[in-house]
Specification:
Elements: H1 2-7, H2 23-34, H3 56-59, H4 64-69, H5 77-105, H6 107-130, H7 134-163, H8 168-196, H9 205-226, H10 258-261, H11 265-286, H12 288-296, H13 309-345, H14 347-371, H15 374-403, H16 408-415, H17 417-439, H18 449-467, H19 480-489, H20 506-530
Helix pairs in contact: 2-7, 2-8, 2-9, 2-20, 5-7, 5-16, 5-17, 6-7, 6-9, 7-8, 7-16, 8-9, 8-13, 8-15, 8-20, 11-15, 11-17, 11-18, 12-13, 13-14, 13-15, 13-20, 14-15, 14-18, 15-16
Length: about 525
């Protein structure tokens, strides 16, 4: 029973000396680990060359189902890439299923479960690579890892929102920035591990997955056990809760229950806002490298005539890889910048910026391609991706403004299903339209024009949905008795007004260094790759 009680929410209630700035580093421990999801493409090609001797005749034309169980044939990239779609889909489903449980279980228990699922899923996936069973990689990395992704993604949100009612955007921006930046750390580490454990020309994919899984279990567990929750009634010193409608920010100091939130038009309008913003952004992320190569080709390098065809091709690929590095950087930093900015501009106005500026940039991208200006093309893509990331990080604060903080983690979990839908729709849409254009003789430099204009239309619909979001009706809020019952389920205690007033100290500085140094290393690597463009 001691181990169970150690994970209970009641054991995480902050003491009077606790400082709230210790919570964002704990959140970053989790998000920097699960953010490796965006870097998983480094495994696809190495996983297609795991078997040295494969019978070409027997393996030719092998379908997806056959590849799930074969031990004699190498897997194809299309068969592997569905792993990403699997854990993104499971992320949304698991966040929706266990969001309400998280509110009652607390961030320590939920974070530890996420650590076991995500890290353990990678270990199971590594074993699947060892025995060459693709179905086991799907089960481990895709399904079990997807559960870890979903629970881990929403775990810090509710806690951060309650600790930072005065800086909701900044606090959640710090944490969710980690999800965008996780690949900047994890992907280079995975590449190094695969090269280090390579044997007879076969990359060490299995060892890399298992070692990463073990590292993530440890780091995420440190984050989970570092979480503290504020006592019931706690507020920052000098904080005055804004009323709904103040400055157009639509911030409420009341609370809506999860069951009622799902019945409001506001929930579904915000669901559409997220889905449309993510669909447009993730489509660009999924095809960024081939898009740059298709649109500009040798124009990416100003000295194409001085290079051999092989050198020219290598230089173009390197330049495109630089864009991928910059995308990771802007995806991460945009989450912090836009979320922090929303504390001043308001959440609704911030999303207006996302949609209006996004429409302009999507319409301009084909123009930059036609005029042969790769610099402006890259800059536009980077701004688009910063707003893609900013949409994620601004969302929890938007939900807290509209529905209150009591069940924001559970509501956020249900709304993340929009990401699952967009994560499949966006890449599928841009890939299928690209192939359609190629099949109908459209030049490579123009195959994305139609897709980019369609994305602009999707953002226009998102702009309309955002404009329709208003404060929820009075009848949706919980009564004082309902709120008291819900708070009792969380095993909190009152008297929080004078609690948790500790000042930042050496422990706070060490916690920030622990997550800051790896993140800055990832930033340096991304910038180094980005220099290839110039």
């Amino acid at each position: 029973m001691a181990e169970i009680s150690l994970l209970d929410r009641a054991r995480t209630i902050a003491t009077p000396k606790f400082n709230r700035w210790l919570v964002p580093p704990a959140a970053l421990c989790i998000h920097l680990c699960i953010g490796m999801a965006y870097g998983f493409s480094v495994f696809w090609l190495p996983m297609t060359h795991l078997i040295h001797v494969a019978d070409p005749a027997a393996c030719a034309g092998q379908g997806f189902l056959a590849q799930l169980t074969t031990t004699r044939c190498n897997w194809s990239v299309p068969a592997e890439t569905h792993i990403f779609e699997t854990f993104i889909a499971v992320l949304g489903i698991s966040a929706a299923i266990w969001g309400a449980w998280l509110e009652h279980a607390g961030p320590r228990k939920a974070g530890f479960v996420a650590a076991l699922c995500w890290g353990g899923g990678l270990v199971v996936g590594g074993i699947g690579v060892t025995v060459h069973q693709l179905w086991l990689v799907y089960l481990g990395t895709g399904v079990l890892g997807g559960v870890g992704q979903g629970v881990g993604y929403i775990t810090p949100v509710s806690t951060l929102i309650k600790w930072f009612p005065d800086r909701r955007g900044l606090a959640t921006g710090f944490a969710i920035m980690g999800y965008g930046g996780g690949a900047m750390i994890g992907a280079p580490l995975a590449v190094w591990l695969m090269a280090h454990f390579a044997h007879q020309g076969v990359q060490g994919v299995s060892a890399s997955l298992i070692i990463l899984g073990a590292i993530y279990v440890v780091v995420m567990s440190i984050g989970a056990f570092s979480f503290r929750v504020p006592p019931t009634g706690w507020q920052p010193e000098g904080f005055t809760s804004p009323r709904a409608g103040d400055g157009g920010a639509m911030i409420t100091d009341r609370h809506v229950h999860l069951d009622r939130a799902l019945k409001t038009p506001q929930f579904w309008l915000i669901w559409l806002v997220l889905c449309l913003n993510v669909t447009a952004g993730i489509a660009v992320i999924s095809m960024a490298s081939p898009m740059l190569q298709d649109v500009f080709g040798a124009g990416l390098i100003g000295r194409a005539g001085a290079l051999s065809p092989a050198e020219q091709k290598a230089a173009v690929v390197a330049a495109a890889a630089g864009l991928v590095g910059l995308i990771s950087l802007f995806n991460s930093l945009g989450r912090l910048f836009w979320a922090a900015s929303s504390d001043y501009a308001g959440r609704k106005r911030t999303y207006y910026i996302f949609f209006v500026l996004g429409i302009i940039l999507y319409v301009l991208l084909p123009t930059w391609g036609r005029l042969g200006i790769p610099g402006l093309f890259v800059l536009s893509v980077c701004i688009i991706i910063s707003m893609y990331g900013g949409g994620f990080s601004t969302l929890p604060a938007y939900l807290a403004d509209i529905f209150g903080t009591q069940m924001v983690g559970a509501i956020h979990g249900r709304l993340i299903t929009a990401w699952s839908v967009a994560g499949i729709a966006g890449p599928a849409l841009i890939a299928s339209l690209r192939q359609y254009e190629l099949d109908h003789g459209v030049p490579h430099a123009k195959v994305y024009n139609l897709t980019l204009y369609i994305m602009a239309v999707l953002l226009l619909i998102g702009l309309v949905c955002n404009a329709l979001i208003k404060p929820v009706g009075e009848h949706h809020y919980m009564s004082e008795d309902e709120l008291a019952r819900e708070q009792a389920l969380q095993h909190g205690h009152g008297g929080g007004e004078a609690a948790a007033r500790g000042r930042p100290g050496i422990g706070t500085a060490l916690a920030w260094l622990g997550v800051g140094v790896p993140f800055l290393i990832g930033v340096w690597i991304a910038l180094s790759k980005g220099l290839a463009l110039f």
